[in-house]
């Protein structure tokens, strides 16, 4: 791969939401490639803090009920919205796989470094998804991720930092937009 091809892949990666997913399975073989890419993220002190939990099959129904319960319990009754609940349910139904992005703190480096490394792992997996025509996006609803141990047990030091919804895609991705990078760089040469 040359530098232009690499940049093209990086620019092609998009947040693809479940409403856009096509029918079809994200296979174990594809997931293996996605997680292999994730696993090559850099870390300080070789901590490799990323952990992934794949929710599939009937477990998706249990997850759907879990996020609905947390939403209902953590929202004042007058603010509860059926539209929101239906959207949350649909997200689970339309995703073929749902991956919990977890961070296992080794306490060898500051937590922000573990989080930075985990985010780099997610970028790697997201790029592999792009190469495999798998849509995905990182969702970070605080009320849900901070209660994830009610859905699945967490090890000591492990916490959920996001939910990565995944599904096959069969239509071209929208083009992204960014402000010019020149505005975000300073050179110091004196
Ligand atoms: C750490 C992180 C958390 C995110 N959480 C959410 C979220 O909770 N809901 C959402 O719709 N998008 C979420 N996103 C996706 C962003 O909205 C998306 O990446 C951004 O709009 C840029 O679009 P792109 O990914 O297509 O380039 C998150 C992205 C990151 C990196």
Q: Please bin the fraction of helical residues.
A: 40-55%
The separation of the N and C termini measures 36 Å
Give the helix/strand class: alpha+beta
> Over all CA atoms, what is the radius of gyration?
18 Å
Which distinct ligands sit in these coordinates?
A: flavin mononucleotide
Largest beta sheet: strand ordering: 1-2-4-3
CATH topology (fold) name: NADH Oxidase
Q: For the report, how would you describe the main beta sheet?
A: 4 strands, antiparallel
Tertiary shape: globular
Order of helices and strands: HHEHHEHEHE
CATH homolog superfamily: NADH Oxidase
Number of strands: 4
Strand content of the residues, in percent?
Answer: 15-25%
The low-confidence parts are: none
Domain count: the total is 1
